[in-house]
């Protein structure tokens, strides 16, 4: 077999393995969304960027990202997985998506490393804003994480500076254009590095009609070039600094997905889950109340 044919064969085998993997991931596959379960482990308390629409909270009533009943330690999280599998054996994915940024502390990666020993067959999924994605790429790979979701709300600093107030980078706080430019650079570097290692990368984009509606196709084009394989465009939840902004209507959301679909597969079943969600999303089988039976606790998102 020539070297060229060998490379092509390896690429086909990698693609087949990836398709098999994603077929069991309810946040990457429409079919899996109604068949397989996932659990989100809320182990990440702080964040290293400030998005104007983001408000992290501790409560049991709001059904949105950035909300959890409690922030867990990595050891507590592993115990919760054991309990969740008893309640829902259909769980195929263990993900970490907050309530803060997963790579702002070591908690998420420590949890995944522990889960790799305890539950090697579960798909491990990391959600991140992407600022530290390139820096921690080797550790992500070594932890056995096979799917990564990166929130990319713009690929032009002029637009992103109106969505993200600033970022914490190497001990400094970078605001406005400077912060937006650095965030985009690091996101694209991280996406490229991980996709080159065979990790499936999904991009999550918050659709804000007055800011990035006409930018959806360009986001999809750029992240596709970097190596992303799927995009999830989700409507703005007006809150925090954007509480006066309007969410997109159905036509705007459909248009944005159609434009992005020129470059990427589009995931259309996102439930905008809490950071402690558990169950089969497509069946409305949520088990969070059975997992978290402790009282509320004070929470500071740093």
UniProtKB/TrEMBL annotation:
Gene3D superfamilies, per the entry: Aldolase class I
Pathway as given in its UniProt record: Cofactor biosynthesis; Fe-Mo cofactor biosynthesis
Segment forming the signal sequence: none
GO function terms (MF aspect): 4 iron, 4 sulfur cluster binding; lyase activity; metal ion binding
Keyword annotations from UniProtKB, A to Z: 4Fe-4S, Iron, Iron-sulfur, Lyase, Metal-binding, Nitrogen fixation, S-adenosyl-L-methionine
Swiss-Prot/TrEMBL cofactor(s): [4Fe-4S] cluster
Radical SAM core domain location: 33-274
Single GO biological process annotation from the record: molybdopterin cofactor biosynthetic process
Function noted in UniProt: Involved in the biosynthesis of the iron-molybdenum cofactor (FeMo-co or M-cluster) found in the dinitrogenase enzyme of the nitrogenase complex in nitrogen-fixing microorganisms. NifB catalyzes the crucial step of radical SAM-dependent carbide insertion that occurs concomitant with the insertion of a 9th sulfur and the rearrangement/coupling of two [4Fe-4S] clusters into a [8Fe-9S-C] cluster, the precursor to the M-cluster.
Protein family per UniProt: Belongs to the radical SAM superfamily. NifB family.
Name of protein: FeMo cofactor biosynthesis protein NifB
Taxonomy of the source species: Bacteria, Bacillati, Bacillota, Clostridia, Eubacteriales
